[in-house]
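Data availability (excerpt). All sequences and predicted token strings are deposited with the supplementary files. A representative entry, GerMN domain-containing protein, is shown inline so that the format can be inspected without opening the archive.
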Amino acid sequence: MIFLAGCTGGNQTESNRNQQEVQEPLPEEAVQVTLYFANQEAEYLNRVEREIAKQDDIILALFEELKNPGEYGSVLPVEAELLNYSEDGNVLILNFNEAFANLGGSASEFLAINAIVNTYTELPEYEAVSFYVNEEFLETGHNAYDQPVPRNENAIQ
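Structure token line:
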């Protein structure tokens, strides 16, 4: 709070003496992000635009948004956590906990992997994503993800 004071020749009114400068809180900076979630039939991905508070760590912020599908179909296992991440050129390397490996059937796996890849490749610095679980390449009953996965426009409705 800042109080204003000054010389006015001694004729201040009560309201002038009690004036204070009111500062409005600055609105939080927001950024628009593009996320991908399963459609109602869980066959394709829907592109969803959201405005989120500007974050220092956009990678973590996007993962948290992917865990919150709203009216769309969830693509991530509930207990999945992003443990850490790094980059190798234009490849984003994501390391998840063990729960992430439980992606369900092949259709669920397809949607989850492509939702993540398509979300992160919306960022201009990434063209593909590598998937790890506890520092090991992700292996499911359907695929071994030992190579970076590129963006898949065909997964989008």
